[in-house]
Write a structure and sequence with these properties.
Radius of gyration: 17 Å
Strand content: 5-15%
CATH superfamily: Bordetella uptake gene, domain 1
Distance between the termini: 66 Å
Order of helices and strands: HEHEHEH
Largest sheet: 3 strands, parallel
Shape: globular
Number of strands: 3
Length: about 120
């Protein structure tokens, strides 16, 4: 069993992988993707081609990934936004349309005001 798994794993990837980033260049997700991707490429032995596909609070990139062949060659570098798509009527997509590979970063959403605000 272990030998057959190792043989299957060695076949992937056999070509470049597309990494679609939900947000524009220079943002937090973009910076993270560009920092971590060279490490992943070294592990995989193949190139990951990063592209920013912005729009509709990330629904543009998410839709492209959901509609891509389910072969592991199109990855979404994203955030929690699919949870909001149906509520905001941006897309019929949800987290159930994706398979998480890794949760690399967790953060908090905060609301702030000027400290002099009454």
């Amino acid at each position: 069993m272990a030998l057959s798994f190792a043989g299957a794993a060695a076949a992937y990837p056999d070509k470049s992988i597309q990494g679609l980033i939900q947000w524009g260049a220079g943002g937090g997700t973009d910076n993270f993707a560009r920092a971590v991707t060279p490490l992943v490429e070294k592990e995989l032995g193949h190139t990951i081609i990063l592209q920013n596909k912005v729009g509709a609070s990330g629904a543009v990139a998410t839709t492209l990934v959901v509609n891509a062949p389910a072969d592991g060659y199109t990855l979404l570098y994203g955030a929690e936004n699919p949870a909001n798509y149906r509520v905001l009527d941006l897309s019929p997509l949800s987290f159930h349309d994706l398979e998480p590979v890794v949760i690399a970063v967790e953060g908090a959403v905060v609301i702030c005001v000027n400290p002099d605000t009454p």
